[in-house]
Specification:
The protein has 14 helices and 19 strands. The protein is an alpha/beta fold. The protein has 2 domains: about 90 residues, no CATH class; about 350 residues, Rossmann fold, CATH 3.40.50.200. The strands form 6 sheets. It has a 7-stranded parallel β-sheet, with helices on both faces. Strands 2-3-1-4 form a 4-stranded antiparallel β-sheet, with helices on both faces. Strand 16 and strand 17 form a beta hairpin. Helix 10 runs parallel beside helix 11. The radius of gyration is 23 Å and the shape is globular. It holds the Pfam family Peptidase_S8.
Length: about 475
């Protein structure tokens, strides 16, 4: 039930009759001050992610929100998480700071990117698969001769939007399964899930499912369908309410694999404490709900080059502050249970210098390119381009999982994970990891050949997935 942006004295008085509904949702909230009514609009309207206790009804959540001077935008009843707007500076205190968090307010002002350039002429018909060293590394061309993947398998590209007009993607993108989630509410209109300032989502989509048609490039699983689920805004930021919306959308629309080539802002690593607990718990609930609904989330390990298993120390957030990190701080969603997390290697099969790692934090590895060598070629609006990152490694793993889901249509996310990790090709720790020749190790790999901190269980294998 949607409520007015600001509650009047009469409206609040009416809701007090439903006080029995408030017990479970306001137990930890600060008491209402004497001047609580009427609400005031003393700050720019902010969007909040709000946690409610398990079993909270939409009506109870709406009443609680109104009493705190917020307007409910959406209530995800499957995970008891709401998206709320408020222009009252007292909203978080009223509903409880252990329940509400605004990523937008924490980030502050960030400049928008330039719009995508106009495409110049049609995409060339040249076959560029000979430039795809990354596909050769995971056995994708051989896999295509056995199976390109099944049309019944839907892969969600949770990213900055996918260009459905690109010739390599036009047959793969399913508009009926696509949506924009930037406001925290799913919007299925094509304008909401199309890219506006970023080529990232289209690049990721091509690596998963670009057509095997003798032109352009070919993805790992060219026979599957894609859902463009936009969670990256025009500033390149990924707010938790968008991610929650995207995962709930995936769970509700038959997505089998959700590619998450991002980390959730406003922090590269989110700690499960204080105000950060709201973000951590909301995303955790969304991932768990998606998993329970049959969706396997495949996520990037991130590009910070840090040991995710031991992230102790200080880190800067987007607002310029410092936070003390501990082992409870994780990259989201990659650090959550049930997520298949992917590190990146370059053409030499060595962990890319930018790729984060960690024993027990990384499940598999895949080609993401190395900035000082060769990056990965894929689709972008209007053509093709190369890029590097764990963002590029992740869709290779997603494509392999999509091939597995095609061959094993009744497999659960847990079973798909076991198959992907069991079939991965072991990559042992390097004997020397001195990337710049300085004589000092740039990172330390721990574990053994079959499972280590750099490569997890090893390199994903497309041929093994279909053979």
């Amino acid at each position: 039930m949607l409520l007015p942006r600001r509650a009047t004295a009469a409206a609040v008085g009416a809701t007090l009759a439903a006080s029995a509904l408030l017990t479970q949702v306001t137990a930890d909230a600060a008491p209402l001050p004497d001047d609580a009514v009427p609400c005031r609009a003393d700050v720019p309207t902010a969007r909040y992610l709000v946690l409610f206790d398990p079993g909270t009804t939409a009506e109870a959540a709406s009443v609680s929100t109104t009493l705190a001077c917020g307007a409910a935008v959406v209530f995800h009843d499957a995970i008891d998480v709401a998206v709320v707007t408020s222009a009252d500076s007292r909203f978080a205190d009223r509903i409880g700071r252990d329940r509400a968090f605004s990523a937008g307010a924490a980030v502050g002002e960030v400049a928008e990117r330039e719009p995508l350039p106009e495409a110049v002429g049609p995409v060339a018909d040249t076959d560029r698969t000979g430039e795809q060293w990354d596909m050769d590394m995971i056995g994708a061309p051989a896999a295509h001769r056995v199976s390109p993947g099944d049309r019944d398998v839907l892969v969600g590209v949770l990213d900055s939007g996918v260009d459905a007009s690109h010739p390599d993607l036009a047959a793969a993108v399913d508009p009926a399964a696509s949506a924009g989630c930037l406001t925290g509410v799913a919007d299925p209109s094509p304008a909401a899930w199309a890219p506006t300032t970023s080529t990232h989502g289209t690049h990721v989509a091509g690596l998963i499912a670009a057509a095997d048609d003798g032109r352009g490039i070919t993805g790992v699983a060219p026979g599957v369908r894609l859902a463009s689920v936009r969670v990256v805004d025009d500033r390149g930021l990924v707010f938790p309410e968008a991610v929650v919306c995207g995962l709930v959308w995936a769970a509700d629309h038959g997505v089998r694999v959700a590619n998450s080539s991002y980390f959730v802002d406003p922090w590269q690593l989110t700690c499960d404490r204080g105000a950060e607990h709201v973000v951590f718990e909301a995303v955790r609930r969304a991932v768990e709900h998606a998993t329970d609904s049959g969706v396997l989330t495949v996520a990037a390990a991130s590009n910070g080059g840090i040991d995710l298993a031991e992230p102790r120390g200080e880190a800067s957030d987007l607002a310029g502050g410092r936070r003390v990190l501990d082992s409870g701080c994780k990259v989201l969603p990659g650090g959550l249970r049930g997520v298949l997390t992917v590190s990146a290697v370059g053409p030499d099969r060595l962990k890319a210098g930018y790729s984060s790692y960690g024993l027990g934090s990384v499940d598999v590895t895949a080609p993401g390119g190395e900035r000082d060598d060769r990056c990965v070629l894929s689709t972008v609006p209007g053509g093709y381009a190369t890029d590097c990152g764990t963002s590029m490694a992740t869709p290779h793993a997603t494509g392999v999982v999509a091939l597995l889901a095609s061959r094993h249509p009744w497999a659960t996310p847990q079973q798909l994970t076991r198959m992907a990790t069991a079939q991965a090709e072991s990559v042992p720790c390097p004997s020397d990891y001195d990337l710049d020749g300085s004589g000092a190790q740039d990172a330390y790999c721990s574990g053994y050949a079959a499972f280590n901190s750099f490569y997890g269980h090893g390199m994903v294998d497309a041929l093994a997935a279909v053979d």
